[in-house]
Design a protein that fits this description.
This protein is an alpha/beta fold. The protein has 17 helices and 19 strands. α16 links the parallel β17 (451-453) and β18. α1 packs antiparallel against α2 and α7 (198-210) crosses α8 (214-223).
Amino acid sequence: MKDKKLKATASRSAKPGEASAPLDLHVIGFGVVGRGVAKALMRPGPDGRAQPFRVVAVTDRSGTVTNAAGLDLAKLVRSKDKHGDISQVEGEHHKWNGEQAVRNVRADIVVEVTPTNIVDGEPGITHIAEAMRLGKHVVTANKGPFALQFQRIAALAQRSGVMLKYGGSVCGAVPIIELVRDALVGNEVSAIRGVMNGSCNYILSRMEESGDDFDVVLAAAAKLGITETDPSQDIDGWDAASKLVILANAVMNRAITIRDVSVEGIRSVTAETIRAAKKRGKVVRLIATISRDVAEVKPVELDEGSPLAVRGTLNVAVVETDLAKDITIVGRGAGQMETASAILGDLHAVRRELAARTSGGGEHRKGLALSGIEVGAVAKKKVVTIDRDESLGAAVRVMQKKGISQLPVMSDGVCVGTISERTVLDLLVDRGAKKLEKLAIEDVMGPPLPELGASTPLVAVAKVLERRSAVLVTRGLDIVGIVTRADLLRLVSAD
C-alpha cells in the first residue's frame, strides 16, 4: 500500500451552549424534486433560523459539484433552470456519476431523488445500497428500489446501522407512513385503500366535469404539466402499485414486490363509462388496495359521497384499523414542493434521532471517508453459494467440487449463514455421507458473513477480518466476491 494515504474522517459534536453543527447532505438527482429540495432548504427552519443542513455535493447527469463549506443553493437552482446542468456553480467539479460520487463525497446523509425506475430499480438501488454500506444515512423519494427490493434494502439498512427514510416515495406530502407508524401505533392495520396517483385522479375527475373522452383529457393534462411526457407509468397504474408495495412492506409487514400486485390502469375508462356511473350516483377512481390477502390497483366505482371520491390531483387513503376504526388522510400527493416537504420532514427526523443517539455526550459519526485503495486490489475469489433449502449433503458436494472451505448460505439474495469445512468434518465423525442428505443446512450453519462495499477502505476490511475469517464483497445489492484473511495477508506481504 505504498504512496497511498487514507482520508481522515472528522467527528463533530456541539459544545455545551452552542447550536449543533449542520448535517452535510449529498443530493443525487437534480431534476424537479432535487431542485425542490434545494428550495425547501433555503427556507427558514422551524425556529426561524437557517435549516440545520448543508448541501456539500450535488450530482446530476452532467457530473458532481462539491464544496465542503456548502454549495450556493440559489445558484444551483438557477444554473439547472438556465443551462440544464450544474456547471455554473462555484465549487470543485468532477465527472463522477452517482455511484462514484457516493464513494468519494463526505456526507452524513445522501438524498437520493433520481427518476423512478420500476424495471430494475437502477441507478437508485446502487446509490442507496452503497451509501448505507459506507455508513451514510439515506433519505429518498425514489419508489423504484422499494417496489422491487424493499426487504433487501431494509435489511441492509439494519445491518449497516444507518437510518433509511422514504416518506416522500408514497403520496408526496401526505404523511401516511408516519400516521400508521406513529399516531396509530398499537393498532392492527387490516387494510389500506386509496387514490395514490394525482395524475389519474385529475384525468378521471376532469372527464366527469367535461364529458370528454380519455384521450382528449390526457392531452390537456399533458399541456398543463400534470402528466409526464411519457404518462404510461401513471395511467397504466404502475406508479400507484409502487406506492402500494411500499405501504405493504412498511406498515403491514407484507413482504411483496410490484410483481405481486394485480394492476389495471385507466386507459379503458371511457366517457361512456363515466356517464353511466354518474347516472347511478357513482364516480370512477383508480383505487389501490392492500390487505392481508389483496394487493391490487384498478378503476373502481364509488359512491359520490365516499371519502375516496376526491377530485383534481388530490391523494387520499383510508386506513382500516381494529381500535381507531377507519382513519382518512387527504393531501397533495405529487408536485415539486409537496415531495420536497416530505423529504425535509425525513431529514429533520434523521437529525432528531441522531441528537437522541448523541445526547449522552457521544460524538456524531460521519460516513466513512473512502481511500483510493479499494477491496478490488485484493485478489478476490468468485463467490460460490448454496441455497438455504438445500441439504448439508449438497453443501458438502459443492465444497468438494470447488475446493473451498467456507460456503455462504443464501436466502432471497441475502447471506443468512455459512457452512464451514470444520463444521462438516465434525459432523462426519458421527454421521455417514448418506445421512447428511437428510440434515438441513439451517440446522447446522454458522453466522452469516459480513458484507462490505467494493470501495470500503482496506483498513476497515482488516478490522472486520480480525474477528471473521472472510467477508463478502458487494456492489449495490449484488455479491461480487469474497475476501479472506489469507488474501489480506498476501497483499500486506507483497507490499
